[in-house]
């Protein structure tokens, strides 16, 4: 259970009555309330005793520890989740979809998989959907061969890596060679934990704690944390879908409902080891997207199996409270000239892509001004006062479109024709043209409009 502001204030200096205002808040109570909601850090209070600061830091830490795998722009953040069910609030960090590469696979197959994970990318509502992790498996028994695979992958891509080996020496040595990439090491077990801790001392990397049951994970995570290894991922080794659902749900509920810190870590799922056929693995992966691993490992995929999985991941991990939107700016559709039409729409992603697609279908290069309506559609944005003459006028003036076209004609959506008058007042010298009510009418409308102007 999350720590409340009323509980925090009692632990502040003078039992919350110091009210020095040095933290930027008028009272200690106001600071405590903001701290409870995550809106400020403990460092803002200069008078907290060290032991109180440590106690509060532990209590305020996310129930599921955030873990980062990889480095740079492609680093993968997992964990940090706050709810069991998406509709309660939102899921935060999308799981990484990993492609498994074994050092026993032929060179041509390795090359094909590397090519596949780099090329299978899908543009989708302003985003690029793709698999984003590589899991490298030491199976050959030849250390040099595995090291060569790791080097080859590191030279080919900067995606996050999961290094998998039952040989602790191989796991630690390859982990050290690419430590700047911050790979996830798989795995710590009850048999090798002391050797792993000794090998990671001084420069810990994220690790997977693996056990044959949820209960057996607890002493592993406890010992790792005591050794200063904080970034831990859990693998309860499910043998089938039923076990996977049971264990993943148990871990999530223990962390979020009981605040059981020993299980408060993200998990990893292996459809590649549970199911042999590709379709079976994809179905298992789809289940895992919902329940709840931070990394999901597949032995293979193609564009037909990967795209539906990525779309499902996007849908599940899109915050239901925040509409999908695009950036407010002027977009070039085709190669517009100073004589090309200027249209305006809202920044709801679906609206933008439909309108842009229909403009492309008209074969008339155009300027499309996209007004920020906080992700609302045109009509809803108008009803909320976010797509009105008073708000569109200043946007057009600041957008720079006046410097890009010779004419002063703006086409507005037909469904908000009533803003024509107020927009003409907000944009003196501009002719406001009421366009089609539906985007599907644009391909027939624009050629006629341009022909009319030319005549």
What does this structure look like?
This protein has 455 residues and is α/β, with parallel strands linked by helices. The protein has three domains: 5-60, 3-methyladenine DNA Glycosylase II, Chain A, domain 3 (Orthogonal Bundle); 67-316, TIM Barrel, CATH 3.20.20; 329-454, Rossmann fold. It contains 18 helices and 17 strands. The strands form five sheets. It has an eight-stranded parallel beta sheet with strand order 10-9-8-7-6-3-12-11. A three-stranded mixed beta sheet has the order 13-15-14, sandwiched between helices. Helix 12 runs parallel beside helix 13 (303-316), helix 14 (349-362) crosses helix 18 (442-454) and helix 16 (389-399) packs across helix 17 (420-426). It is globular, with a radius of gyration of 27 Å. The relative contact order is 0.08. The model has no long low-confidence stretch (mean pLDDT 93).
State the low-pLDDT regions, or none. none
CATH fold-type name of the largest domain: TIM Barrel
The CATH homologous superfamily of the largest domain is named Dihydropteroate synthase-like
Rg over CA atoms: 27 Å
- Given helix and strand content, the structural type is alpha/beta
Annotated CATH architecture of the largest domain: Alpha-Beta Barrel
Strand neighbour order, sheet with most strands: 10-9-8-7-6-3-12-11
* Basic shape: globular
Distance between the termini: 71 Å
């Amino acid at each position: 259970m999350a720590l409340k502001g009323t509980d925090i204030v009692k632990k502040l200096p003078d039992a919350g009555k110091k009210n020095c205002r040095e933290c930027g808040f008028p009272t200690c109570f106001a600071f405590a309330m903001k701290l409870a909601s995550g809106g400020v850090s403990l460092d803002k209070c200069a008078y907290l005793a060290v032991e109180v600061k440590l106690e509060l830091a532990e209590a305020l830490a996310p129930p599921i520890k955030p873990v980062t795998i990889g480095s740079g722009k492609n680093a993968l953040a997992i964990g940090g989740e706050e709810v069991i069910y998406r509709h309660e609030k939102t899921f935060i960090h999308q799981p990484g979809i990993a492609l498994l590469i074994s050092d026993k696979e032929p060179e041509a197959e390795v090359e094909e998989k590397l090519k596949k994970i780099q090329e299978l990318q899908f543009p989708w509502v302003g985003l690029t959907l793709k698999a984003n992790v590589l899991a490298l498996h030491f199976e050959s028994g030849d250390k040099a061969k595995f090291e060569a695979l790791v080097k080859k992958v590191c030279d080919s891509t900067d995606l996050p890596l999961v290094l998998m080996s039952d040989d602790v020496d191989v796991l630690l040595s390859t982990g050290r060679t690419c430590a700047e990439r911050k790979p996830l090491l798989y795995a710590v077990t009850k048999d090798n934990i002391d050797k792993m801790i000794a090998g990671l001392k001084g420069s810990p990397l994220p690790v997977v704690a693996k056990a044959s049951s949820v209960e057996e994970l607890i002493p592993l995570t406890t010992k790792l944390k005591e050794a200063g290894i904080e970034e831990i991922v859990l693998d309860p080794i499910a043998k089938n879908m039923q076990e996977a659902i049971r264990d993943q749900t148990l871990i999530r509920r223990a962390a979020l409902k009981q605040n059981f810190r020993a299980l408060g870590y993200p998990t990893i799922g292996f459809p590649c080891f549970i199911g042999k056929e590709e379709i079976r693995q994809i179905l298992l992966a789809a289940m895992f997207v919902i329940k709840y691993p931070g990394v999901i490992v597949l032995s293979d995929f193609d564009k037909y199996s990967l795209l539906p999985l990525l779309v499902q991941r996007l849908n599940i991990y899109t915050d239901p409270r925040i509409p999908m939107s695009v950036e407010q700016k002027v977009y070039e559709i085709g190669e517009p000239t100073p004589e090309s039409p200027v249209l305006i729409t809202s920044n709801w992603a679906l609206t933008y892509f439909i309108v842009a697609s229909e403009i492309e279908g008209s074969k008339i290069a155009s300027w499309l001004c996209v007004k920020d309506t906080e992700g609302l559609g045109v009509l809803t944005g108008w009803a909320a006062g976010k797509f009105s003459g008073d708000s569109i006028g200043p946007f057009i003036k600041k957008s720079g479109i006046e410097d890009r076209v010779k004419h002063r004609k703006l086409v507005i959506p037909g469904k908000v024709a009533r803003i024509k008058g107020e927009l003409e007042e907000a944009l003196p010298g501009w002719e406001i043209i009421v366009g089609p009510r539906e985007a599907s009418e644009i391909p027939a409308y624009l050629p006629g409009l341009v022909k009319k102007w030319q005549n």
